Amino acid sequence: QVQLVESGGGLVQPGASLRLSCAASVHSFSYYTMAWFRQAPGKEREFVASINWRGDSTTYADSVKGRFTISREYAKKTLYLQMNSLKPNDTAVYFCAAKTILRASTSSSESEYSSWGQGTQVTVSS
After folding, report:
1. Which residue from 59, 65, 97, 111 has the highest number of Cβ atoms inside 10 Å of its Cβ?
2. Model confidence at 101, in pLDDT bands (50, 70, 90)?
3. By C-alpha distance, which of 110, 9, 123, 14 is closest to 67?
4. What is the pLDDT of residues 29-38, one digit of tens each?
5. Residue 36: how many CB atoms within 10 A of its CB?
């Protein structure tokens, strides 16, 4: 099981940028495919972005493609989500997750991730 702690959320205006971080407490961080999901009030949790264990393959939801960038830093065992051109409908609690199977490809399926952080709130409002 991977322990994950998100940070970096906050209140920003439309068009602003924000970078989320997710610190992982696990020896073998480099073997885990990671992802970001989000859950808006009254809605189901949805996939945002995923990055494979090697860091050379990424997948994005259509709603964030071209605006968000997922990345990882192995030495710091940290996952990032750079969010640009934020919109009000990006408002949600953002969760990072680690895929159950090691050395796996990216995936948008929530059921394939078994370790989750507690979430960080992102609010986009004028």
Report:
1. 97
2. confident
3. 14
4. 999 999 999 9
5. 26
